[in-house]
Z-ring associated protein G
Amino acid sequence: MAWINTLVFVIIGIVIGFIIARLTMRDNSQQKDLKKELEKSRYELEQYRQELVDHFAQSAELLDNISRDYSKLYQHMANTSAELMPNLPEQDNPFAKRISKISEVTEESSSSQEPPRDYSDGASGLLKDQKETSKAS
């Protein structure tokens, strides 16, 4: 009789285990679906960020081109006005005042193409006095 009770309890345990396994398997499939959706959303977000970075890079390049073209146009107008009206006083020439500013800006932009240095030419800060006194000795 003990064997029959044991066998019945084992069969009931297997049935209950099977039912619990089926119920939890559905949750795993939902978790897998949610995980796939999350990965898809992350991928789309990364693509969007890359498109945004590309857009701003292209916009910056276009603005740079516009500023260079504007500077060239202004230089051309200033040179042409100086050639066509050589005897015109500087205060009457609308381009004379601004041409020096534009040339300064173009010189600064061409010289700023180098990366900044992380060090100074001479000693500075607290050690400046120590180096000068050691050189004098």
